[in-house]
Amino acid sequence: MGKDLTIPRRNVGIFAHVDAGKTTTTEHLLYHSGRIRALGSVDSGTAQTDSMDVERERGISVRSATTTFTWKETSINLVDTPGHVDFLSEVERSLRVMDGAILIVSAVEGVQSQTEMIWHALQSLQIPTLLYVNKMDRVGADADRVLRDIEKQLTGMAVPIYAPLGAEDTFRGAENVLVEGASGAPGFDLAAAVEKLSELDEQLLTSYIEGVPIPAREVKATLQRFARQGRAFPLLVGASSKGLGIEELMEAILDYLPGPSGSAEQPLSAVVFKVERDKTMGRMAYVRLYEGAIRNRDTVLNATRGVEEKVTQIRKIDGRRAEDIGYVAAGDIAAICGLTQVRIGDVLGRPDAVPPAPRLAVPLLTVQVHAESDAQYPALVAALQELTDEDPLLDLQWLQEERELHVKVMGAIQLEILTSLLASRFGLQARFDQPSVIYKETPSQPGEGFIAYTMPKPCWAILRFRIEPGAPGSGLVYSSQVRADQLLAQYQSEVERRVPEALQQGLLGWEVTDLKVTLVEGEHHVWHTHPLDFAVATPMGLMQGLAQTGTTLLEPMLQVRITVPEVYGGKVLSDLVQMRASFDPPQLSGDRFVVEGRLPVATSLDYPVKLSAMSGGRGVITSSFGGYQPSPPDVHAERKRRGVNPLDQSKYILAVRKALST
Predict the structure, then answer these.
(1) So what does this one do (predicted)?
(2) How far is it, in rounded angstroms, from Cα 130 to Cα 480?
(3) What Rg value do the Cα atoms of the chain yield, rounded?
């Protein structure tokens, strides 16, 4: 692993909807490459990449796991990501550091909601992707139907490079269709590949129209070119649990996914995509290098935090094993020890070579956590803080005066996992309240907020904000029209820093979003202005403005797809109406009833359980975050405010000034 930079590499993420066979595929890749001597299994809890107790008990992946194997002298860093929607934040962080991806689709279930969501994220980041249709040996497997599904829901550029030999219990492997003399099957043959690729390549199109035979090697070379650009997507078939299709998948990684670019000679540019605690080494940061290199005992700049720290050890983590490698260079992934202040998403060295982060995961529920006894609160706060370092979306809030702990979660499974983690890793028995929905607020109309904070002296900060509603999903857009000679640049940047903080709690106690805030007037005083005056004035000016505009309550929505046996269709529609859903006309697919629509999170928290009970376990609901939208007038949700309300200006000033004086 040492300093040999000539080794070809691939950094590949493996993604799928829950239960499509992702961890089993990873296990077989490791076994067939000779990296492990015996196959583990998800069901028996012996999979290499399921290293947490809870993953082995539940048979699901909760955290992304990095492993490395070598195939034909190419070193492949493989990141196995969770498939369950509750752990989407792990998927999001892994996406950022990949040069290529394998997206697994079940040959029985076809394209599911999580598959679609990950696909769109891979597309938005233009990550070259292999499509792997797994479970061809299961009852109900149908490669033709899945290919049509993929063409309809994901991409028309899925190019089958292998044709299935048999299906269900007769499935015996796959035939390469990109070699001379291969027969294949309609849709899974050389002609199908040519037809699709001719849409991207003019030369191929001309030959295709004129009926000129095109050699298979030329078709393969064309597909390689477009696959590495992320414009065409090779499709493979297999049955991972039997090891069928695995070697073909390894070949395809080398043939169709690009290697990393970047040079070890350039200045360092790297990103931290995962943080873990190690019993002996403390905090370990998983880092992907885009440029430069890191050696043991190097001092590296954390550009995000503005601190320099010394590297004590560089490890290659492989499932449950670790090896000290002492050096890591551009294009590779390793775990770095010694960076005590590092957080997920931090950039090391210069930021210009690091790609942007996708945003998929949005926690929609908040939940209060209780310790077993008052004496255990400090330990519980410390444990949850450590877990928040590993998953920043938990967004731990510790309200000391009220002795209240709150975290944000994606769903019920995540709560079970948190309970289990606190017990197994920290020895703490915590209790979680029922989760409640995270609402937001947005200004109801345009208006202005004004504050002249000039008493009690010494202080002087005058601000006027224009507040306008923004487009749905636009978040907060802030700008200033004030010249630096009216309000010094340092005071303006203090205001800009405090605006998002001040909007964490609106008139109803929820975060204020989808708005445009413009600073239109600002004034300081040469003698009386204290540097923190604008930190005090900003929340007062904004809250005064929101009191003028009023705010509208926004509720989170889910985009859902419900599939049930036809006999339950009528019941599902009446449930949807009761839950205030909006939905498209239902479709019949064979004997299955399929309906898609939008559901408020608040009315549907326990619906998956109810649907399963009603349909004898044969109903499937898949969901993804569908944005926020205004609540109906009869929905009221207010959250208790933390701290003093800036609308009560004199009390607020006293509270803050007391904090200033201490």
Answers:
(1) Abolishes the inhibitory effect of tetracyclin on protein synthesis by a non-covalent modification of the ribosomes.
(2) 46
(3) 28
Residues 6+ apart with CB under 8 A from 429: 372, 422, 423
Tokens standing for 498? 């405090």
- Which tokens sit at 50? 């399921």
- CA-to-CA distance for 138 and 24, rounded, in angstroms? 15
Q: Which helix (H) or strand (E) holds 271?
A: strand 269-278
pTM to 2 decimals?
0.66
As a whole number of angstroms, the distance between CA 311 and CA 458 comes to: 46
Q: How far is CA 460 from CA 484, 524, 529, 646, in A?
A: 16, 6, 5, 17
Pairing between β-strand 404-409 and β-strand 299-302 as defined by DSSP bridges: unpaired
Q: What is the dihedral of CA 536, 537, 538, 542, to 10 degrees?
A: 120
Instruction: Count Cα atoms within 13 angstroms, Cβ side, for 257.
Output: 30
Cα distances from 530 to residues 458, 460, 520, in angstroms, run: 7, 7, 21
Helices (H), 60-210: 88-95, 113-124, 143-153, 190-197, 202-210
Contacts 24+ apart (CB under 8 A), 34-41: 34/69, 35/67, 35/68, 35/69, 35/70, 35/318, 36/319
Residues 101-106, mean pLDDT to the nearest whole number? 94
Please give the distance of CA 284 from its chain centroid, rounded to a whole number. 20
Cα–Cα nearest to 289, from 221, 223, 336, 230: 336
Matching residue, tokens 């945003």: 359
Question: What's the rounded Cα separation, in Å, for the pair 138 and 131?
Answer: 18
Contact 10, 257 (CB under 8 A): yes
Candidate from 22-36, 54-68, 160-174, 295-309 with smallest mean pLDDT:
54-68
What pLDDT does 79 receive?
82
Q: What is the dihedral of CA 58, 64, 70, 74, to 10 degrees?
A: 150
